[in-house]
């Protein structure tokens, strides 16, 4: 096995890389996992082209990296799910594999993925890694963009860094969807997704680097007036997602993209709503709430 790692970003050679020489379906071992983890510490986003995997293979590979999340952040009941609770359904399809109606609730909820976010920042223990496998890709559009939150931190003015340092944010899916005017939540969902607290600045346990922990799920900062908090988050997001700081992934069928949610944000881009787009995500949990992690 000869593993090759090749940077993908035009201006930044430490963000996003293509990995070849690994077969996700068969190379399920600790040695490969630690090699990948080291590459993620450096590049934060890894693209594995040509990985023809099913959900079981994807899940099994993902378990090499830590405890797994369930898809409890998806909307809708368990009985009408298209995929198992081990896999997040990142598609615009119904249980018959047909494109959802334009007004479908799950579709409108899913549009939240088009806002910059870090996965599961709305859970008290958020996501460490996400692994996203492309099964059906539309002909046009539907790219995924990734922003490097380590360089977002490094390039922040020192006085802004000082201001951010000890702030705590409230994250909820109710906030991110509210930004799109989506308010159609049941009482049960409102209870399940009530805001959780996360640090605004965090330190990566392996590299020791600081990064900004932003997400569209943020709706408030502890001890700040809400409009001021939201403006501040919006300014920081604008800074973090400047084009030079972003890698754009243009999907091919059977790409698997893996990223470190602790140091990146991502968003999906628009595509024709009548075209099928089907990606399956498995998600590895972080070790606990960010407030319990040393800064
Ligand atoms: C995700 C996600 C973006 C996309 O899978 O977590 O936000 O492009 N996906 O589908
Ligand atoms: Mn996501």
Bound molecules: N-oxalylglycine, manganese (II) ion
| Fraction in beta strands | 15-25%
Distance between the termini: 38 Å
> The biggest beta sheet, please?
7 strands, mixed
Characterise the protein shown here.
With about 300 residues, the chain is of the alpha+beta class. The chain has a single domain, classed as Double-stranded beta-helix (4-Layer Sandwich), CATH 3.60.130. The chain is about 25% helix and about 25% strand. It has eight helices and 15 strands. The chain has helices at about 30-45, 55-60, 105-110, 150-155, 160-165, 175-180, 185-190, 225-240; strands spanning about 5, 15-20, 45-50, 90, 125-135, 145-150, 170, 195-200, 200-205, 210, 220, 245-250, 255-260, 265-270, 280-285. The strands form four sheets. It has a seven-stranded mixed sheet with strand order 1-2-3-13-5-15-4, with helices on one face. Strands 12-6-14 form a three-stranded antiparallel sheet. Helix 1 links the parallel strand 2 (about 15-20) and strand 3. It is globular and about 50 Å long. It starts with a strand and ends in a 10-residue tail after the last strand. Manganese (II) ion (MN) binds near residues 113, 117, 119 and 266.
């Amino acid at each position: 096995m000869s593993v090759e790692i090749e940077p993908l970003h035009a201006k930044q050679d430490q963000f996003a890389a293509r990995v070849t020489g690994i077969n996700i379906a068969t190379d399920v071992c600790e040695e490969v996992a630690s090699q990948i983890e080291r590459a993620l510490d450096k590049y934060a986003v890894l693209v594995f082209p040509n990985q023809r995997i099913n959900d079981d293979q994807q899940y099994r590979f993902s378990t090499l990296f830590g405890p797994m999340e369930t898809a409890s952040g998806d909307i809708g009941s368990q009985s009408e799910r298209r995929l198992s609770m081990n896999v997040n359904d990142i598609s615009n399809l119904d249980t018959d594999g047909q494109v959802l109606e334009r007004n479908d609730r799950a579709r409108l909820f899913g549009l939240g993925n088009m806002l910059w976010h870090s996965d599961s920042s709305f859970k008290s223990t958020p996501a460490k890694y996400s692994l996203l496998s492309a099964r059906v890709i539309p002909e046009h559009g539907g790219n995924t963009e990734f922003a490097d939150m380590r360089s977002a931190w490094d390039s922040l003015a020192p006085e802004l860094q000082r201001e951010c340092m000890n702030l705590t944010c409230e994250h909820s899916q109710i906030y991110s969807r509210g930004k799109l005017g989506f308010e159609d939540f049941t009482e049960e969902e409102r209870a399940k997704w009530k805001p959780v607290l996360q640090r605004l600045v965090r330190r990566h346990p392996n590299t020791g680097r600081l990064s900004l922990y932003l997400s569209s799920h943020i709706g408030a900062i502890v001890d700040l007036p809400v409009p001021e908090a939201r403006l501040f988050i919006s300014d920081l997001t604008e800074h973090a997602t400047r084009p030079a700081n972003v890698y754009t992934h243009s999907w091919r069928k059977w790409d698997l993209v893996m990223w470190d949610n602790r140091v990146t944000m991502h968003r999906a881009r628009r595509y024709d709503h009548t075209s099928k787009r089907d990606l399956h995500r498995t998600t590895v949990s972080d070790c606990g709430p960010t407030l319990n992690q040393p800064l």
